[in-house]
User: Fold this.
Amino acid sequence: MNIANDCHFLDLSSDNLIVDFDCGDKDLNDFFNIDALNYQNQWLGRTHFFRDKKTGKIVCAFSLAADSVKTVLLPNSRRKKVRELIPHEKNLQSYPAFLIGRLGVDKYFEKQGVGSQLVKMIQLHCKNQYPYFGRFIVVDAYNSPEVLNFYQRNDFTFVFSTEQQEKENLKKSVTDTETLRTRQMFFDLMRL
Assistant:
């Protein structure tokens, strides 16, 4: 499946709803099938999806919202890593970013490269539709090897180099033996 050629790109609206979407994750399914339009109507983010031209089935969906990379919260080494990407650095405490709030691929289309195509489309969408509005794309990725590896394969970098560092810096109320539910990652749009 090539989502650019085989699908229609649609904005979620009351006329274009997401129904019967199943990516295998109850939380994501509930968001896209039930909550996304209300979320959007409250100006909390915008949801888009790809529908197969032949079958009408929803292939994948994502939501975008405004966010930032908050360098003031980062330890020195990570702050330098983000700031070194900015020539003639301005001493900002945060840099504008787009947040991938939700992202899902329907189970029927798994293992076909759709997820990576979707991430590339999101990157191009942000760059082309909203130039100068954000330097980075950020995501709170589910903290599972499969999800983290997926984002790393698509050129995302961890905001914090280790999970322990992320716990300490974000003052998460998680014990040392517990794992975080998500890990923060970012992509620099200037790489495109």
